[in-house]
Automatic annotation (TrEMBL):
This is Homeodomain-only protein. SUPFAM superfamilies: Homeodomain-like (SSF46689). CDD domains: homeodomain. One of its GO terms (cellular component) is nucleus. The keyword DNA-binding applies. Residues 2-63 form the Homeobox domain. It holds the Pfam family Homeodomain. Coiled coil: none annotated. GO terms for biological process: cell differentiation; heart development; regulation of transcription by RNA polymerase II.
């Protein structure tokens, strides 16, 4: 389910599979220790992992017909 926006990170299929599994089963907004563990499992930095989750969340929200950012609703 990699979109062009997510493809720029040049992630392997295995990394994407781990990220997608965590996105769908654990949390769409991982923080702290969870983010650190996901990053370590994927061999990415926490910043790279957080960026992937931000992009993936925007993609998910668009697919659900929601605003790309929560703040858009409140503005």
């Amino acid at each position: 389910m990699a979109s062009k926006t997510l493809e720029y990170q040049n992630l392997s299929k295995e990394q994407i599979a781990v990220l997608e599994e965590n996105f769908n089963k654990i949390s769409k907004h991982p923080e702290g220790m969870t983010l650190m563990l996901i990053a370590a499992e994927c061999g990415l930095t926490e910043e790279e992992t957080l960026e992937w989750f931000k992009l993936r969340n925007a993609q998910w929200r668009q697919a659900e017909g929601l605003p790309a950012k929560l703040g858009s609703v409140l503005d």
